[in-house]
Amino acid sequence: MQFPQSLNRTQLSLFEGLMASAVTPLLNQAAEPPWQEGPEAFSEISLRGAAGHCLNLLAPMLRELSEHNDARWLSLIAPPGSLTQTWLREAGLNRERILLLHPRGKQSALQLAQEALKLGRSHTVVSWLHPLPQHAREQLEQAARQGKAQSLNISLG
């Protein structure tokens, strides 16, 4: 059986019609940087096990961050001793976009991470703070928002 209306015009399915109306306004909006989306300025990963295995799990993530389109640095604050220049090279990270920073004198790794975040010269500041109390998380998040950056803490247990 043929329906005359199908010969005269093209019909969209209900799903296609809904998708077209829902997607069109989104395409016209400018994409906002991730630091303006909400409470995502701070993230934390907790890894347990041998240091070498943990670094192998982190390698793809750090590699992606080192290739970030943002012209700013990927800063690594007080990384574990096993994270060396040789490891960075072997893991395929873009070493030209990475800063390895260590606290000096009486400065703590937390203070250095906060300072690096506030300056805004890094798109992501990765710290290795364990344990990390709630007030320290809040300080890192606030500093990240101030510098329009991301704070990532890696807790190795």
TrEMBL record:
The keyword Cell cycle applies. Keywords: Cell cycle, Cell division. GO terms for biological process: cell division; negative regulation of cell division; SOS response. Pfam families: SulA. InterPro entries: Cell_div_suppressor_SulA, P-loop_NTPase. This is SOS cell division inhibitor SulA.
